[in-house]
Specification:
This protein is mostly beta strands. It is built from one helix and eight strands, in the order αββββββββ.
Length: about 150
C-alpha cells in the first residue's frame, strides 16, 4: 500500500460535514434546497436561489466536466508528487456548482478542459476528500434521475 502525502484538511462545521464525510459511503453529497431543488455549494443552510432554509445534503452522480485547470510543478508541502492537477469541475446535475479538486489516476499533462471526470475519494483521517479521475465510461452525459 502506497502512503499518501499529508493533505491539508478543512475545518469541519455543521454545514460542510456531510460533504467531507459522504465518501465513506461512496457518496458525493451536495447541499440542495428542498423547496426549489437548487444545488448549493459551498455547503450552507441557506438557498441563494429562493431564500429557503430547507437545505441539506443529497447524493449526486459524482460525474462532471473540467471547466478550468492548472498543472502545478511545485510541491507546496513535503512528499507531494509533481506535477499535479488542480481543476474546477462542474457537476452534471447543475454545472454552475463548481468543485475545486485534484485530477488523479492519469498523466497530469494529458488533462484538458472539457474532459469528463468522475469522483473518487481519498481518506484523510476521518474525512473523505473528493478527487476526480477521467471518466471513460459509456455514459458521458448527465444522469437524468429524480429531480
Amino acid at each position: 500500500m502506497t502512503s499518501q502525502p499529508p493533505r491539508p484538511l478543512p475545518a469541519i462545521d455543521a454545514d460542510n460535514a456531510a460533504f467531507w464525510t459522504g465518501g465513506k459511503d461512496g457518496e458525493l453529497l451536495i447541499h440542495r434546497c428542498a423547496r426549489c431543488r437548487h444545488y448549493v455549494h459551498p455547503p450552507t443552510s441557506f438557498c441563494p436561489a429562493c431564500e429557503s432554509r430547507e437545505v441539506g445534503p443529497e447524493p449526486v452522480s459524482g460525474k462532471g466536466v473540467i471547466l478550468s485547470l492548472t498543472i502545478n510543478h511545485r510541491a507546496w508541502f513535503p512528499g507531494l508528487p509533481v506535477p499535479y492537477v488542480v481543476a474546477m469541475v462542474g457537476i452534471d446535475e447543475q454545472p454552475d456548482v463548481h468543485l475545486i479538486t485534484n485530477i488523479v489516476d492519469c498523466d497530469p499533462l494529458s488533462v484538458r478542459i472539457g474532459d469528463r471526470v468522475k469522483v473518487r475519494f481519498e481518506q484523510a483521517e476521518d474525512l473523505w476528500v473528493p478527487l476526480f479521475a477521467p471518466d471513460h465510461g459509456p455514459d458521458h452525459g448527465p444522469e437524468h434521475g429524480e429531480d
